[in-house]
Amino acid sequence: MITLYDFKTKLPGTTLSPFVWKIRLALNIKGLEHQTHWISFSKIEQQLKELGLPPSSTTPNNFGTYHTVPGIYDSFTDTKVSDSRAILKYLDETYPNTPQLLSQPNGDPQLEAFVAEAFAPAWGTPASMIRLLWKVIAPKIVLEGLEGEDTAKYRARVEAANGMSVEEWMENEAARGQCLAKAREAFDVADAWLQSTRKIHGGVWALGEAVTLADIELGTVLAFACSILGKDDRLWKQIIGEWNDSRWGALWDQMGQYTRVVM
């Protein structure tokens, strides 16, 4: 059994971290038996240390800690791994008979630049989509998704990013509108990327007939948005039903089946 460490929220999707979503999607795509072990957002570092998880990075993250989710414990191999990219590598290597998400398509020179971009250590396109969308919808996380110490810690990050209190941000329609417009531009860039790759290979996934890291990255953006907003939210319906001629809805039809949160 693989245990996935994550922090719980009161949001529609129960969880929200895009980094954890990458691993949850991967586990579901690979069909690996797993469960979620919930920890406290404000005590991530403390609790992961107590569980014996290695640090995620040698440099502190946005919260000044070295431990963060996701982390996994694989009881089949008695192995603990932290950091989403390291976990993906471990899952591919340990379970070779499952879809190999880090396997790069090759053989088509027209795809080389797209493959290199998608498999780079940090693909800027989905990161930009998440960062800009997060600024718009993060107040919901503070006001509805967390409580107690968890809320206070997350509020500090949101307010530092937006340069004003959550309440001021919610009243500032101009600032939120500008940020949402930039988020939509980021989605436009990703959509153009996807259309270009599919014209080349004609496959069902981003880079061909096999699901790869590129699909995980873009699927994570949608899973992140849906988990915070909920399926009945107006903005979510716009993203999948209106933006880029509903092509994000088509991608969600492919990826949504892999968003199951196993308690």
Automatic annotation (TrEMBL):
GO terms (BP aspect): glutathione metabolic process; L-phenylalanine catabolic process
A Pfam family the protein falls into: GST_C_7
Annotated TM spans: none
GO molecular function: glutathione transferase activity; maleylacetoacetate isomerase activity
Gene3D superfamilies: 1.20.1050.10, Glutaredoxin
Alphabetized InterPro entries for the sequence: Glutathione-S-Trfase_C_sf (IPR036282), Glutathione_S-Trfase_N (IPR004045), GST_UstS-like_C (IPR054416), Thioredoxin-like_sf (IPR036249)
Ranges for domain GST N-terminal: 7-99
PANTHER family for the chain: MALEYLACETOACETATE ISOMERASE
Name listed for the protein in its UniProt record: GST N-terminal domain-containing protein
Organism expressing this protein natively: Ephemerocybe angulata
Record lineage: Eukaryota, Fungi, Dikarya, Basidiomycota, Agaricomycotina
